Amino acid sequence: MREIPAQPFAFPLQRDAVALVVIDMQRDFAEPGGFGASLGNDVSRITRIVPDVKRLIEGFRKAGLPVIHTMECHRPDLSDLPAAKRNRGNPTLRIGDEGPMGRILIVGEPGTAILPELAPIDGETVIEKPGKGAFYATELGDILGDRGIRQLVFAGVTTEVCVQTTMREANDRGYECLLAEEATESYFPEFKAATIAMIRAQGAIVGWTAHVDDILETIN
Ligand code: TIU
């Protein structure tokens, strides 16, 4: 069996049952004028991880392993947007409002799209999700079950919101989860560091963390 060097101990790779899940690498979280910026965040932190996310995606493609993309987004009529989510905080633009890249986090709008460098290719699954977690109100669980996937490698943004929510639920659903450290980012460096620490604490209570280079060397 191949093992990926990881923390808190080596990750026992099942090459026939692993998929990469890239969480929400959308313009709305990475570019000025989008949802992340409307919340007052420095979005340049997100842009900086794009090369490492790209390397990881390309490595999985080269290895013939599945790549799944998620997008946080809502229907144009906002019927899947709870008032509690729309009204939260004090953003300059709320979800569904018209911004410089179209309506914020609405399906089909330019700002809601995945960054072009990381765009899905034919055959890759794209999960549109109305929540922070990728299992809530989506077909992700069924898709993974149908394909016999039992291990998930996670990348994307933001580490402590959509990535961590998804990884925690995946762990409860019985998947072995590995977070790619350089391929995830938060608007808050201290939250990224805390998330990595808490995931792998207590003997991998939620999962493992590993470096992109080590993941790529092991899968290929
Ligand atoms: N605001 C923030 O940190 N994240 C989100 O709203 N969504 C995701 O993490 N994708």
UniProtKB/TrEMBL annotation:
Taking every annotated instance into account, which residue ranges of this chain make up the domain Isochorismatase-like?
19-207
Report the InterPro entries cross-referenced here. Isochorismatase-like_dom, Isochorismatase-like_hydrls, Isochorismatase-like_sf
Q: Which Pfam families is this protein grouped with?
A: Isochorismatase
Which residues are the signal sequence here?
A: none
Q: Which GO terms describe its molecular function?
A: hydrolase activity
Task: Provide the alphabetized UniProt keywords.
Answer: Hydrolase
The protein's superkingdom reads Bacteria
Which protein, by its recorded name, is this?
A: Nicotinamidase-related amidase
Species for this entry: Rhizobium lusitanum
Q: In the record, what lineage is assigned to the organism producing the protein? A: Bacteria, Pseudomonadati, Pseudomonadota, Alphaproteobacteria, Hyphomicrobiales
